[in-house]
Structures are given as structure tokens and as C-alpha cells.
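Comment thread on ticket #2218

A.B. wrote:
> Attaching the input chain for the structure job we discussed in standup.
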Amino acid sequence: MTWLAIETAPRDGTEILVYYETQYANGKGCSVVSFSRYEYWSVTAVGGHDCEQDFDDKDVKYWMPVPAAPDK
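C.D. wrote:
> Ran it. Output below, let me know if you need it in another format.
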């Protein structure tokens, strides 16, 4: 998989993996997010629970589809 420009990301509520750089929290990282109906990127789940952190478009730089779970 390759990181893609955030401008090409789906904005229909599909969960995607994003790379962000922000002044909040740890500053850089990856999260599974979706584009909300309120027109911002919202973290959908972290560690099995909902998270309240949201990102502006300027924070989110790249995206890729969420990878499939590993086969056991």
C-alpha cells in the first residue's frame, strides 16, 4: 500500500487510515478516521473505543485504505 494525497480521500464516511501532524496530542501519528457530516476528519475508534479527537484538513496530510486483518 502507498500513502495518497489527502485531497483524494473518500468523504462519504468510509473509514480510512490517515497520517497527521498536529500541534495537539503527540504531534504526529496515524489513526483510523472518517470524514464526518460536520465536514472534519473524526477519529472513529482507537483501541476498541471511541475517541473525541478531530483533525482539520491542514493537519491530515496522507491517507490509505484500512488494511485487511491478518489471516490466522
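A.B. wrote:
> Thanks. Noting for the ticket: The radius of gyration is 12 Å.
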